[in-house]
Design brief:
Blueprint (H helix, E strand, L loop, with lengths): L3 H4 L7 H6 L8 E12 L8 E12 L3 E5 L6 H8 L7 E6 L2 E2 L4 H6 L1 E4 L11 H11 L9 H7 L15 H13 L5 E5 L7 H16 L3 E5 L3 H7 L2 E6 L2 E7 H6 L4 E7 L8 H4 L4 E4 L2 E6 L6 H10 L4 E8 L2 H9 L1 H6 L1
Length: 340
């Protein structure tokens, strides 16, 4: 049953203004951030806190872009500024070509944000929540995709259940569904898989890949670095309010210049041959040797020659590379990374 009080709510984007907006451009970059700064005023004798200190960032249109950083790095502040929820102290932000200061309504219409927190009205069903949200964004009834979105998020069988009866994973799906009702060209996912099970995570990422394939630009923040490495084509790492790295995922991992050669030998060893010990090799177990090296300095062939020269017969070998987690630690905690 429709709720009269819900129907009387003022749309976030009035219909007359929505119709007057020009057709969305197709910029080269879905999001452009220049010199973005935010300082929160001090309270109760606490000093002012700088959350962002001159961030420059460009998110290519159609990319699956990762925004990573430790807790308190400034990620949520940046997202909230993009969404119009927090006022910036300085800088410029455009979303899908719209300046968030000069064209705030168009900028908000171009972005869908899925927050970390599970904020839902417990007395609305998923269908009612999506219909209400679409109305607040000025989406005409004929253009609404409520059933399609519910089905895509695996909520079709819960469409008419109260939100308070949904599990945590289903509530997370409903938040994502709400962010999609106005078909935004830019979708921001802020820790979307926090606390959800593996099955839901795989379902969600399959759908995110589908959205990206259709041309939606996806900006993802997550503490699960393995999924960022698997999903994102470009990644920016922010620390203490500044961007410390922004590159393709492969290039970021490649910066480590660190690999490990693991060799399995034909006979057990009690100690390492001196020639291998001099190279810093480690005896992992009696039949496995690990040699850590920098590809920019040492060739694998040189290591293999040293092993052969030490009179060791190989049965098998593998190489291990650094991953995104290693790169992340090297950039945000360089002392720890060096020690490792």
């Amino acid at each position: 049953m429709a709720r009269p009080e819900a129907n009387r709510r003022r749309p976030l984007i009035p219909m007359r203004e929505l119709r007057a907006m020009p057709s969305p451009p197709r910029p080269d970059h879905a999001v452009v951030i220049e010199g973005l700064a935010k300082t929160y005023a001090g309270r109760r004798r606490q000093p002012a806190k700088t959350a962002l200190a001159g961030v420059d960032l460009a998110v290519p249109r159609g990319s699956l872009f990762g925004l990573l950083g430790p807790n308190g790095a400034g990620k949520s502040t940046l997202i909230n500024i993009m969404a119009g929820l927090v006022r910036k102290s300085a800088g410029r932000v455009t979303v899908w070509g719209y300046d968030i200061d000069r064209e705030p309504l168009a900028a908000r219409a171009a972005i869908g944000v899925v927050p970390q927190e599970l904020h839902l009205d417990p007395f609305f069903t998923p269908r009612e929540a999506l219909e209400l949200h679409a109305g607040l964004y000025g989406v005409p009834p004929a253009r609404r995709r409520t059933d399609e979105i519910l089905a895509a998020m695996g909520l079709a069988d819960k469409a008419d259940s109260y939100a308070r009866s949904l599990s945590g994973g289903m509530r997370r799906r409903l938040l994502i569904a709400k962010a999609l009702v106005h078909d935004p060209p830019v979708l921001v996912l802020d820790e979307p898989t926090a606390g959800v099970d593996v099955d839901l995570r795989q379902h969600l990422w399959a759908y995110v890949r589908t959205l990206a394939a259709r041309g939606t630009t996806v900006l993802l923040t997550t503490h699960y670095l393995e999924e960022a490495e698997a999903l994102c084509d470009r990644i920016a790492i922010i620390d203490r309010g500044r961007v410390v790295a922004c590159d393709t995922t492969r290039a970021l991992v490649g910066r480590l210049d660190r690999k490990t050669l693991l060799v399995t030998v034909d006979a057990p060893l009690e100690t390492l041959p001196p020639a291998l010990a001099a190279l810093g090799a480690e005896l992992v177990d009696p039949r496995r040797i690990a040699l850590r090296y920098r590809p920019s300095v040492t060739r694998v062939q040189d290591l293999l020659d040293a092993i052969q020269g030490a009179g060791v017969v190989l049965l098998d070998l593998t190489t291990e590379e650094g991953d995104l987690e290693d790169a992340f630690l090297a950039l945000t905690r360089p002392g720890d990374a060096a020690a490792a």
